[in-house]
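SEQUENCE AND FOLD
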Amino acid sequence: MAAKSDYYDILGVSKDASQEELKKAYRKQALEWHPDRHQGADKEAAEKRFKEINEAYQILSDAQKRAAYDQYGHQAFSPGGGMGGFAGQNPFSQAGQWGPFTYTYSTRGGSGGESPFAGFDFGDPFDIFESFFGGGSPFRQARQVPRYSIAIDFMEAIKGVEKEVEIEGERRKIKIPAGVDEGSRIKFDEFILSINIRPHEIFERDGSDIHVKLEIPYSLATLGGDINVPTVDDQLKIRIRSGTRSGTIMRLRGKGAPILRGRGRGDEYVRITVAVPERLNNSQKEVVRKLQEEGL
């Protein structure tokens, strides 16, 4: 069996990384390696990598699992490893495709010599299996709760959306609230729904904050003036100060995503880049030469 990669290396964080750093690293990696963003031969590799990322976050985001991993490494979750009494339990998972969803669910119990994590499908990295580390007997049979995942567009996540789906042969409508993020979970009576978000061509997201790049002409950066900037709601006119440098970041308060479990909204951060003209006519070149002579 090939050696497994270090969980910290998979997420690209140090071993003393905070929970917030782990979450940000997971979001970045999950977005980059989401199978929907890859095609052809690359898709299979992306699916494998995506599963590794989910597995790494599943372990490191739980304090007790992380402590066990730090002490024993992958051996903590292998037969006869550092997890002691848990080594004899073999929960199983089932996965499949159902309508617009992909789904997985698990039950605890069973027998055999495998690790409690052997062969487990970490399809929902935000689900914490507390029964393996206190909070209940690992031998107790748990109720089967189907888990589904659905991919939605970036703006649907920002504004909320109602989807019609088919579950167990029955058509039904579900509401996804405004402000859901990659990996958000919604609990319904019969199942748990995990959210995957397709990337946007302009906007990037960090929690409730939105980031966008805005290229402005050299003349505007030099002289200043007004320009429209895109937001998740509409176009907004902003003032560019004279002498604005490339790399300047402007903050637009309250123009980010809705805060899912709170009030208000995040902010939008606009990174300014100054476009340098590639071609100039003779008169324009003369103006630039005069500026150059004056040391500007």
